[in-house]
Amino acid sequence: MLMVNGSEKMISFKSEDSDIRISFSAEAMNTLSSYRQTGTKTEAGGLLFAEQLYSDVIEIKCVTTPSKLDLRSRFGFKPNKRAAQKTINKFFDEGFHYIGDWHSHSQDTPIPSPKDIKTIKDIFHKSKHHLNYLVLVILSSNNDFSKTYIALTDGKDIFPCHPYTL
Fold first, then answer.
1. Can you give the CATH number for the domain in which 15 is found?
2. How far apart are CA 1 and CA 78, in angstroms?
3. Is the pLDDT of residue 109 over 60?
4. Under a CB-based contact definition with an 8 Å cutoff, are residues 77 and 18 in contact?
5. pLDDT digit string (tens) for 18-30?
6. How far apart, in whole angstroms, are the C-alpha atoms of residue 2 and residue 144?
7. How many domains does the chain have?
8. Which positions ≥6 away from 146 have C-beta within 8 Å?
9. C-alpha dist (Å) from residue 41 to 36, 72, 77, 112
10. Which of 101, 25, 22 is nearest to 57 (CA)?
11. What's the whole-model pTM score?
12. Which domain holds residue 28?
């Protein structure tokens, strides 16, 4: 939720290059918020899941948290591929579809590194799916969720998304 003039508003993100809006369930936002990279915390990351894929509003219902097998450092996060695939399979059996990845940065307004961009594009190409895009979320270190970096990729280009209040 985003505070606007003292009241809570649902926040979504929208790309100027498509009609797709990305929104987050309260549970997903709470989970992400608990992994903000403040102080000396290491980067964290996980997977993003939605129930509905073929709509102009994609609600991220579930996000996973770091696995014990992931590699985490102050300026890096590398998920364990085998653990991630096992999680994707489990969520799929429960009716959720993998739609992208998230990780934290220690920046108030995160900027994706070239490695971040290359990784999400590679995942798009190497994953078996029927999606037109994958989502990349880089969690801001501050409490203003609207500062979080969110983008879509079709495997070729990156389409940054901007806050869109309902």
1. 3.40.140.10
2. 29
3. yes
4. no
5. 888 999 998 999 8
6. 8
7. 1
8. 2, 11, 163
9. 8, 10, 12, 18
10. 22
11. 0.91
12. 2-165
